[in-house]
Amino acid sequence: MKFNAPRGTNDILPPETLKWQYIEKKTHELFSNYNYQEIRTPIFEYTELFQRGIGEVTDIVEKEMYTFEDKGNRSITLRPEGTASVIRSFLENKIYGQAQPTKYYYIGPMFRYERPQSGRFRQFHQLGVEAIASNDPALDAEIISLGIRLLQNFGLDNLEVHLNSVGCKDCRPDYVEKLKKYLIENKDQLCDNCKSRIERNPLRVLDCKNKSCKTVINDAPKITNNLCDNCAEHFEDVQNYLDVLDLEYIINPLLVRGLDYYTNTAFEIKDNALGAQDTVFGGGRYNGLAEEIGNRDLPGIGFALGIERLLLSLEAKGIELPVESGVDLYITVIGEKAKIESFKLLDKLRNEGFRTEMDYLDRGVGSQMKSADRMNAEYTIIIGEDELNNNSATIRNMKSGDEKEIQLSNLLEEMKKLVDKEAV
Ligand code: ATP
Ligand code: MG
Question: Where in the numbering of this chain does the Aminoacyl-transfer RNA synthetases class-II family profile domain appear (predicted)?
Answer without folding.
Answer: 23-322
